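Retro notes
What went well: the complex prediction finally ran end to end.
Inputs used:
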Amino acid sequence: WLGYHAALPGANGGLHKAAPIWSKRIEVQEQHHVMDTALTELSQGLSKLYGVQPEIIKAQTQDALHNERIPAIRLGTLDGSRFAAATLTDSERAAVHGEGFIIREDEAQRELVISSATLQGVLYAVFHLLRELTLKPERAQTGAASDDMKHGKHKRIDITEQPVNSLRMINQWDNVDGSIERGYAGRSIFYENGEFTRDIKRIRDYARLLASTGINAVAINNVNVHRKESLFLAERYLGEVAKFATAFRDYGIRLFLSANYASPIEVGGLQSADPLDEQVREWWSIQTAKVYAAIPDFGGYLIKADSENRPGPFTYNRDHAEGANMLAEALRPFGGLVIWRCFVYNCKQDWRDRSTDRARAAYDHFKPLDGRFADNVILQIKNGPMDFQVREAVSPLFGGMENTNQVIEFQITQEYTGQQRHLAYLVPQWKEVLDFDTYAKGEGSEIKRIADGSLYRRPYSGFAAVSNIGADACWTGHPLAQANLYGYGRLGWNPELSAEQIADEWVRLTFGHDEQVVERITGMLLCSLDIYESYTAPLGVGWMVNPDHHYGPNVDGYEYSKWGTYHFADCHGIGVDRTVKSGTGYTSQYHAENAARYESLETCPDELILFFHHVPYTHVLHSGKTVIQHIYDTHFEGVEQAEALAETWKELEGKVDPVIYSKVATLQAEQAEHAKEWRDMINTYFYRKSGIQDEHARTIY
Ligand code: GCW
């Protein structure tokens, strides 16, 4: 999406004829590594768009610049350059803060000024401008050369943007051996064979990709911190970590490390990691000071504790507030953050035990701790209470932690959504979660307002997500899965953007403006998640995948295992009773409006019926269909739709890059085939369990 290849040919054929008058000269006053990045991006982008390399003028004194008679782009921060401030009114100067920016053309459209309070803001403005110029080539039609201009139709550029979320983070689940946990796009770009990669260029390219969508933080190693990765905190590796930090810093991105809670033992050779032990606390303080000596703008620690066999404070009978606050104390002198994951549940459950409900776990663990976390601790909460299923309820924990900083965690990598072999554009799912009203403070208490910190007025908040990239040539395995990485960044910047707009942007930036191409690919993206949902686990019940690697159907794969992910299908019915009346009581973790809606079969939405209720196969949904007929119908339709996706793509042969064309064609054919496996396994399973015939007498085995 950074190809900038969609320049508009000029009226007389030549590309540069369409170039805006100001695009041939760039003026700056400030010197800084982020400003250098912004300059490189801007001149590279403009020359790709218009075929002319702009001249860059750097000057120490303001007087040497801003000769208004010379058309130019002028960029700078409010404090660091006079022209940046000069174009804004007092109230605008007060309103633009942090990473926000204003991009403005003067009346004569001879000058374009980019102003921000920060250098990061300037960089985001540059990416934004280049995106706008690529998406709306008519914007370039300025000056006397433009017919629109002559007829007074051209609107001058005047853009104000402010990121809605302050933390916009990516989590890498990369291991130092070069593997990636849940990675579907090849090996790690960060590590090879137990060492940090020497290919810093690729890290920089990644930083560039991320920054272009607005990402400002990255945790560079798996939250499951194994033996060798625990040593990232030690001298042996800190120098290497610092090199990555430099690459990301140039793009305004702060580096975090996932840390092993038992580091005092694993790295420090102590006997204990008890958060209340003085020696342990001192060890963290000293170690953290060493990290900051190597990386002065280090972001902090991302922690998975007492989760899936990882160590944590429970070992010492301490709770998670005690555990997190110890780290917070070590980080506080440096302005660092503890990002503490709430993915805590019993992963050694006995399937016979019907009283334990995994969905309840995060809320049961963390709600009682609300208000006890230090102010530089942020809880990272997965969007749902289970684990990134294609459909599950929204985590009730967001509605329950008024006095705690929190970020929402999404999964861009498609662990349960087709592993980048099936097409699944995830932005619509994320939008649905963000728009969910928790009623925490009455109507209008949407998750997006909790994630952005405004509802509870929290100092730290935002988005985190597990990346989907690897060493694969197109970064993401399935080329169209790039839309998810792009979409995550854009949504973190502004959760009000629609899934349609984000898809349209990504397709135009990536493939250009051919209307057939744009229409077909956005169409494919926008219906892809519904299609995937329809041929996989039905009605919100989730799972039904092969254990361990999680690809492909296996209805009972987890039914008698320790992971707490059951569907309870028998010959009468299916679903998990999570009601207060007769089930696990999970519904009570929501505020009254949602609790009542989910508790009652009458009001529970169809798509989540099996998440909340155990019902007979003959139960009639709001759609008018029985549960069993719904299962049959959606699975037959899902396969037809998956086949249609493959057919749609074929229409684009010759219209998109041939390498990308054939890669996607192969993947879509595989998806259509594999969807049949899903259909037949699920339909056959439920036909055999229920003994109920398909109304349409289609083939079930
Ligand atoms: O989704 C599950 C994955 C694990 C992962 C865990 C987590 C990194 O199957 O591979 O571990 O969640 O989020 O911690």
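What we learned: The radius of gyration is 27 Å.
What to try next: split runs per interface for comparison.
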